[in-house]
Amino acid sequence: MVSVANLTKTFGGPDRRRVFESIAFTLARGEFVAIVGESGIGKSTLLNLVAGLERADSGTISIDGVDIASLSDDALTLLRRHRMGFVFQSFHVLPYLSVAQNVALPLALLGEHGDDADARTNEMLRAVGLETRAHARTRELSGGELQRVAIARALVHRPAIVLADEPTGNLDPDNAAEVIALLRGCATENGATVMLATHSRMAAAAADRVLVLSKDGVTARDASTL
């Protein structure tokens, strides 16, 4: 589903800073992979590159056999809308919408409305424990609740690829375990490929495989060895 080859990324002007170099890995359909590494090593950047939100300096990223560098901005937008779900560290929920409206947004963008869309939205709200907060405004929520809204929104349209950036960072252990179980279910039940960037040993241990990211590349580890 995802193939990354010889990926290099740098930031900055004249004094350019190398984030990483010659990254290469493949992810199978339905695989749940944790991306780990020290703070600032580029885990979030790697997710953004796979999503086509940033461009690499060199190398290729292919989604289901298509090199995303060959796609126009409009085509990339459609790819993300139809096939990807995102959980960002900063949530990116819309404050003028209710909790339910935020969760339903990916379905609305795909033109899905009515009873089926409502049922999917309610299903996800129940899955993240927010069914009683459906009509609340997001400004009324705690950080942990906002995180769960973001997770429900990322999963509601059953994406083929889920990119989750520290999705348990604002959650207590019980809610964190439930979120990891949701992501695990996306892989096993829906056949989604899940990329989870995390500092959490518990979250990484739930993955099928762990990729340790460094400036010089990635090293694969078995999750059971964490």
> Which term fits the overall shape?
globular
Major sheet characteristics: 6 strands, mixed
User: Tell me, what is the CATH class?
Assistant: Alpha Beta
Give the full name of the CATH homologous superfamily.
P-loop containing nucleotide triphosphate hydrolases
CATH fold description: Rossmann fold
Structural class: alpha/beta
Q: Estimate the helix proportion, in percent.
A: 25-40%
Q: Termini, distance in Å?
A: 25 Å
Taking all residues together, what is the mean pLDDT?
Answer: 88
Q: What's the alpha carbon Rg, rounded to whole Å?
A: 17 Å
**Level-2 CATH architecture:** 3-Layer(aba) Sandwich
Molecular structure report:
It is built from seven helices and ten strands. It has 226 residues and is α/β, with parallel strands linked by helices. It has one domain: Rossmann fold (3-Layer(aba) Sandwich). The strands form two sheets. Strands 6-7-8-3-9-10 form a six-stranded mixed β-sheet, with helices on both faces. A four-stranded antiparallel β-sheet has the order 2-1-4-5, with no helix packed on it. A hairpin with a 2-residue loop joins strand 9 (209-214) and strand 10 (217-222). Helix 3 (99-109) packs across helix 4 (114-127) and helix 4 (114-127) packs across helix 5. The mean pLDDT is 88.
What distinguishing features does this structure have?
226 residues; alpha/beta; Rossmann fold; six-stranded mixed sheet; 7 helices; 36% helix; globular
